[in-house]
Amino acid sequence: MTTTGGMLATVAVALAALLPLASSQEAMMCPTWEENPWCPCYNNDYGIFMECPMVSLDMVSKVLGLVTNPIHSLSIYDLDPNVTTLPSEVFSQSAGVSQLQISHSNLQSLADGSFEGLEGSLEKLTIKHCKLNSIPQAPIFQLGRLTNLDFENNNITEIPSFAFSKLTLVSLNLKDNRINLVSDYAFDGLKESLEVINFNGNNLSQLPLSSLRKLTSLKNLQVAFNRIPDVHLDEHNGLPTLQYLDMSSNRIRKIKSSSLSGLPELVSLSLYMNSINSVARDAFSANPLLETLFFSHNNIRHLARETFKYTPKIKTIDLGNNNMQSILGGLFMLLRA
Ligand SMILES: *[C@@H]1O[C@H](CO)[C@@H](O)[C@H](O)[C@H]1NC(C)=O
Ligand SMILES: *[C@@H]1O[C@H](CO)[C@@H](O)[C@H](O)[C@H]1NC(C)=O
Ligand SMILES: *[C@@H]1O[C@H](CO)[C@@H](O)[C@H](O)[C@H]1NC(C)=O
């Protein structure tokens, strides 16, 4: 009995010693609830996380002034619908933010100095489910450490020349906009850095190859749900570093001998929901690393026996929902071998 009591007492002393320490560390990082009842804030091993839902930008600015350490992730959403321009100086009191997300607002544009205060810290910027109608070049050019840029679900129609030229982006997400024009010089400046581009759900009538071909690190290109009628990625117009290509839900009808011959590193190809009715027997002869192929929901009636003889690493072929009249027995025997 006495032993147990002694142990409990020891534990209680240890806890008493730890608790004030933990809460004082927290106080050093997040403002107290009394100081800041507007933006819930917590910190863990990654740093400070703060969310400001339905809070005015003036208030966001004040709260940021109370945080003396850089914030890891700041999320601002459900802004007053009357706010259509992000004003300058919202972040000028901030000690820094690594990842900023603004979502579900009526923002159409950003003032030139709107990221003042974040120049040396911002690595990931997301402005999604808003109404941006162009790439906000002047404000993002200040962000020298930015590697990830996400403008998913806005109202952008055009990527102009040198749109990101002062940045070193690795990943660019432009999903679900209305883009139908990409300048030949759109990605100039990102030549060596850009690895991932998402153009899904736009209004492209062709692959913007002149701009894409300058990217020497491009690995992953997603252009599903556009209105592209064909693929011409031959040796002279190829993307020699590309590993993942998604052109599902476009208007492609034929995969010819040379359609994919400029993709020597290709690992995964998605072409579901097109109108493909013919696949050349040597269509994959220049894609020796191909592992997965998604061809479902097309009009393929026939695949030649030797179609996959050039792709020894193939693991998955999805041909569901086609019009297959003959899958030559030899095709899948070849695959198993
Ligand atoms: C938005 O603007 C309208 C008209 O200018 C005004 O009546 C309304 O109160 C404003 N809404 C907010 C939340 O400030
Ligand atoms: C998108 O921009 C067009 C002008 O380019 C405008 O007419 C339309 O209302 C905008 N859509 C939204 C949802 O803001
Ligand atoms: C797509 O682009 C065409 C012009 O190429 C235009 O007529 C059409 O309105 C655009 N669609 C959308 C949803 O923006």
TrEMBL record:
InterPro entries reported for this sequence: Leu-rich_rpt, Leu-rich_rpt_typical-subtyp, LRR_5, LRR_dom_sf
PROSITE patterns registered for this protein in UniProt: LRR
Keyword Translocase: no
Organism: Penaeus vannamei
Pfam families found in the cross-reference section: LRR_1, LRR_5, LRR_8
Keywords of this entry: Leucine-rich repeat, Repeat, Signal
Name of the protein in its database record: Uncharacterized protein
Superkingdom of the source species: Eukaryota
Signal peptide: 1-24
Entry annotated with the keyword Amino-acid biosynthesis: no
